[in-house]
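Usage

Read records sequentially. Each one opens with the input sequence:
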Amino acid sequence: MMNRLLAISTRFYKSRVTRIVRDTLSILFPIMLLGSFAEVLKFAFLSPSGFIATLFSVTKWLPFVHPLSQLAGVISRCTIDMIGIYGAYGAAYSTVKEYGKKSAAVAGAVGILSFLMISYQTGSRGRLVFNPTLMGQGLLIALIVGYVCGRVIVTFERNQLSGPYQVIRPLLIILLLSVLANLFISFLRSPQVQTFIFSITPHPVQGNAFPYVIGMGLLTDLLSWLAIGGPYTASPTFTDPPALANLNHALKAGTAYNAPFKYTATTLFHSFANFGGNGVILALIIAIFIFSKRKKFLTVARWSTFPAIFNNNYAMMLGVPILYNPILLIPFLLAPLVNMCVVALFLALNWIPAAVYPVPSGTPGPLIGFIGTNGNWLVLVLGIVLIAIDVLLYAPFVKLYDRLNENAGDKHETTD
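and closes with the structure output:
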């Protein structure tokens, strides 16, 4: 099975589109890494409700904490929250470069223009604004936009048109396509369509809570692998009705055991299936340190460890990359699934309490369940055991990905 997966992945890895995506993600990696550091510093270290800030009272003794928090916020907004712009540029640039044309920089600029036109839509107050969801969570759309822009420009450059038509004619075509895409997305965001989508979407009830949480958790991880925002947020909120009901029960009973809603996004997904971010990225980092011999992977893992400790996986997603990687997709979905099923069993047997208490922002993944159960040591041990299991799940796929890069002979991924 692994050899067949390797053969399929090798053909996929060597395709022209895959090379374009890999080159684009390589361009975006340092931008996303910078944003990841800034986001972690802002929410975990410089926010009054942050994990490190709460633990060490950082905001009480650190000078200029407010300006530093604002600076980290600016960096985060200009990197992570605008990654779609950079993705459109990188995809258009890499596409034209892959086809050996000279207008890569022009294509990148056109890619930015097209993506901005698509993202400029009516906001909640009826004003035209850049859609924040597309800007920050629409990397897949940005890659498609950039690729289409690049291919249009390559087609006209291939025809060797001279004069202003070499830029103007493909630009007009791209602008027309951008307007049509904008109208289509605006239609999807209309109240009628949103109401219809909501009506056909399954909703959790007490009888189907476990399969619903498992399904939504896997869907969140899959969409994360596709660089699309999923149904579950990156951090637990503890403000949804089941979470509030669990908290009220714990406060009245004096214990988190026998919570009325054992299987929720907070008790299963956020507390045990999100170590290091979606896909249990912390386990992948450990697996790379132990089993990988590729210099690039080790470098990416070292740089990504700090943000991953605080559940920020953006750098790893682009640096390895995990995005659109068929080999790593399997453990990326399997590890959270195993964790949620094991924890659900422990909850069903009443061996551990549910995570019902709010945790500070930026709390490291393995500590969310521990703090959320008010310091239950069995929960902490269970989290450590689950990470070890996840590392073992990732191990054969890390080794297989090493073999894939060796077979592909990528000059950028030389061994130590």
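Summary fields computed downstream for this record:
- The radius of gyration is 23 Å.
- The chain has 20 helices and two strands.
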